[in-house]
Amino acid sequence: MTGKLKGKIAVVTGAAKRLGRAVALRLAEEGMGVAVHYGSSAKEAAELRGMIEEMGQKAVAIKADLRSVDEIRRLVLEVGNELGRLDLLVNSAANFLPGSVVSTTEEIWDASLDTNVKSLFFVSQAAAPMLRRSKGAIVNLADTGGLVGWPGFIGHSVAKAGVINLTKSLAKALAPDVRVNAIAPGTITMPGDPPEWEEEFVRLAPLRKTGRPSDIADAVVYLATAEFLTGHTLVLDGGKTIG
Q: Domain residue spans in the chain?
């Protein structure tokens, strides 16, 4: 535990499962109270809330459809009402929709951009007043598709490139009060993932291994406490994007 985050409050979007869940638990280990945002995973969110409370930290689970700006504003208002302040926003909620230059439909395109970049902006916009008051931070989850482009996931890649640019724009717009950074993970494997994901990544990455959720959680803690860093995208990919 660093001690820098103890007693502070975070909201993690998409926290009920996968990376968001790992991040929320790690922040609670660091002494933070956590607002667990979820869309449809009510059971998992309630379980996570209980786990955080058992660790001795404040926790709430709040449902919101991040495709709706009104729902986003309600989410942030509830965080303030329930937990009293906000020091860290982790924009983790995302989708991962396949779509090539041939198969991408208007629905896939819109869903990719709405969930992965539009919602991120409006959550940040709504949270900004509280974050300014606390001199807080935002950490956005991008991925390496936003850096190199994945031809089988064109809409997704464009959206994540938007996250990287939006991180820079928000960092300038909210400075000096709020620091804004991003993480671009490569292949992060979790129990139940197809083994071929790990095999492919191990073959291509210089470090010859995949990342784990703990790697992302560690990076979030670092970015939440790095007081002289803003507008940066931290690439966690085992060196894959360097070739």
A: 9-242
Q: By C-alpha distance, which of 133, 171, 166, 164 is closest to 235?
A: 164
Q: What is the CB neighbour count within 10 angstroms for residue 121?
A: 18
Asked if 207 and 175 count as a contact pair (C-beta separation under 8 A), the reply is no
Spatial neighbors of 164 by CB under 8 A, at least 6 apart, are 142, 146, 147, 182, 184, 233
Total residue count of the chain as it appears in this document: 243
Whether pTM > 0.90 for this model: the answer is: yes
Highest CATH level, class, for 9-242:
alpha beta
Whose tokens are 């790697």? That residue is 215
At 58, list the tokens: 């404040």
| H-run or E-run covering 182 | strand 179-185
SS3 216: helix
Concatenated DSSP letters for 13-61? TTTTSHHHHHHHHHHHHTT-EEEEEESS-HHHHHHHHHHHHHTT--EEE
The residue to which tokens 């933070």 are assigned: 32
pLDDT tens by residue, 179-230: 999 999 988 877 777 777 677 777 778 888 888 999 999 999 999 999 999 9
Which of these, 3, 53, 62, lies nearest to 33 by C-alpha position?
A: 53
